[in-house]
Write the structure tokens for this entry.
Amino acid sequence: AAYLAGGIHARATKKQWLLFVDQDTSFPSGAMDSYHQAVLLAKDHHPIFIPKLFSLGRMVSPFRYTTIRGHLTKNIDIKELALDQYFAMNSGMLVNVVFYHAVGGHDRDIPLDFSDFAFLFRAKAQASVIIMVDLNAQHGSSFWSDEIQSVKLGRFQNYCQAALRMEKYIGQSFRIKAILMARAFTLMFRFRSIRYLQIAWRAWVLG
């Protein structure tokens, strides 16, 4: 909802570009200059620009993807990333306002966990690549941080609900549910709670 509101405000105030920033992302000094230079070099040929996001020493965005799974990669030096191979997290994404609304913006029916996936699936209809800016930003550690177990369980439940709604973009309902079960097993052993498996099973049955 916040991303959509930002897009509506940007169009109403006749802005050309829209920058999405999460509260747990920090940028180095000179970040706006890096975006500006990248846009100038693109010469209006590309509508989406992204930085590299790092968390706990690992690059977490951009990433390769299959279905609803993101696969972390080593440091990438390619400037133009094909949208049929790579996606990126919302935070730090700079999008042309006209393009953003032309593809429908963020899907209000898709919760935050997969809002970036859903938006970029929409973007693929009119753009073939995203441009990586010469910029490294730091992003919060998210699910793997030292939150209490009840918070992790709540976040995993939200994750499952969001994943099931991605069927509208990719179909493959069985594969989505299988991915959720695999993730549940990983979290069950990591955090020593069978409740992750119970949440995923409930999503499988009710979804």
